[in-house]
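Anyone opening a protein record will find just a pair of labelled lines. With that in mind, the following record should read easily:
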Amino acid sequence: MTEQQMKACIAENRLHVFYTSSAWLRLRAEVLAADKNECQRCRARGWYRRANTVHHVNPVRERPDLALSLWYTAGGGRKRNLVSLCHACHEAVHGHRHPPRPPPLTVERW
């Protein structure tokens, strides 16, 4: 898959084609191996949980140019764009697991 084809898939909202491409599957395997198949978010908390997902720090829809990039530059420094996560952490990062609570309707003062 060329970079043009990849960007076309993302623009046409055909992300499944991107996520099943050999380029992505190869890069995904490299990231998981580099992180020793360990969830990096859990690891930062001192826990061990097996990673099964590679998360894009810069969402693919917003930055298709970084879809196959391990690193990106921000604030004068080089940062990781792809991070190994377990399913629970990936859901939490995207806000699917525990969506933010709405503010209370009234303020209790007692």
Q: What stands out?
A: The chain has one domain: 3-93. The beta strands are 53-56, 71-74, 77-80, 82-85. The radius of gyration is 17 Å.
